[in-house]
């Protein structure tokens, strides 16, 4: 019997986002004896059953995972450190983060168009325009450097901003750097290493510990064994 079967009538809910986090979570679930038969990339379903009747998945936007968990719509979830940092700025202290799962690894970086003299720009103390989805992380990074910035929030196609004059620099996630190079941008500064973490609703941890703790332990063991 899988560890989540303790409460069949009220299954535990795990919040995940599509894409890399979903794909890299599957082996962790399998290590806990749980299979997911449907892929959200090919299915329109937003609630996915698993081989364990005591656990279901909900598929939400990556930036919404912490909200679903914090407000109890999901008992636990998996979200990137980048998303959690932005969420915590608006909702401090609302989530328990027991495990860094070391999946979906990347870097949060500053990038500029090729030929832009970034060192001179920040050295002069001039004001930079920075486009990013990660406003809080960018604000704190440049504040530590003593650089004044005008932050422009974008939700996608970040690489376009320096090319059309919207911004001098961007702050974005970088994995291989291929997208930057294809758009004639270059990475000039690394802000943080990013990986995804298991996050848990604090009320669920207290009221559903018998069902939830074995799954947390299984994730921890699978991560340690990688």
UniProtKB/TrEMBL annotation:
GO biological process: L-histidine biosynthetic process
EC annotation from Swiss-Prot or TrEMBL: 2.4.2.17
Pathway as given in its UniProt record: Amino-acid biosynthesis; L-histidine biosynthesis; L-histidine from 5-phospho-alpha-D-ribose 1-diphosphate: step 1/9
Annotated ranges, domain ATP phosphoribosyltransferase catalytic: 61-219
Compartment(s) of residence: Cytoplasm
Cross-referenced NCBIfam families: hisG
Known function: Catalyzes the condensation of ATP and 5-phosphoribose 1-diphosphate to form N'-(5'-phosphoribosyl)-ATP (PR-ATP). Has a crucial role in the pathway because the rate of histidine biosynthesis seems to be controlled primarily by regulation of HisG enzymatic activity.
Quaternary structure annotation from Swiss-Prot or TrEMBL: Heteromultimer composed of HisG and HisZ subunits.
Domain notes: Lacks the C-terminal regulatory region which is replaced by HisZ.
Entry protein name: ATP phosphoribosyltransferase
């Amino acid at each position: 019997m899988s560890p989540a079967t303790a409460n069949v009538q009220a299954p535990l809910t795990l919040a995940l986002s599509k894409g890399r986090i979903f794909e890299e979570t599957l082996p962790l679930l399998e290590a806990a004896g749980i299979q997911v038969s449907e892929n959200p990339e090919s299915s329109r379903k937003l609630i996915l059953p698993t081989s364990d009747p005591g656990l279901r998945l909900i598929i939400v936007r990556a930036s919404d995972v912490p909200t679903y968990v914090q407000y109890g719509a999901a008992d636990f979830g998996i979200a990137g450190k980048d998303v959690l940092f932005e969420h915590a700025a608006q909702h401090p202290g609302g989530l328990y983060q027991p495990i860094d799962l070391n999946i979906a690894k990347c870097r949060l970086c500053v990038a500029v168009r090729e030929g832009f003299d970034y060192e001179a720009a920040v050295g002069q103390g001039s004001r930079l325009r920075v486009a990013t989805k990660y406003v809080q992380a960018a604000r704190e990074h440049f504040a530590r450097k003593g650089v004044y910035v005008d932050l422009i929030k974008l939700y996608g196609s970040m690489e376009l901003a320096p090319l059309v004059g919207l911004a001098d620099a961007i702050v974005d996630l970088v994995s291989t750097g291929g997208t930057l190079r294809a758009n004639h941008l270059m990475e000039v500064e690394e802000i943080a290493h990013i990986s995804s973490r298991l996050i848990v609703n604090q009320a669920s941890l207290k009221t559903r510990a018998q069902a939830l703790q074995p799954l947390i332990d299984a994730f921890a063991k699978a991560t340690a064994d990688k």
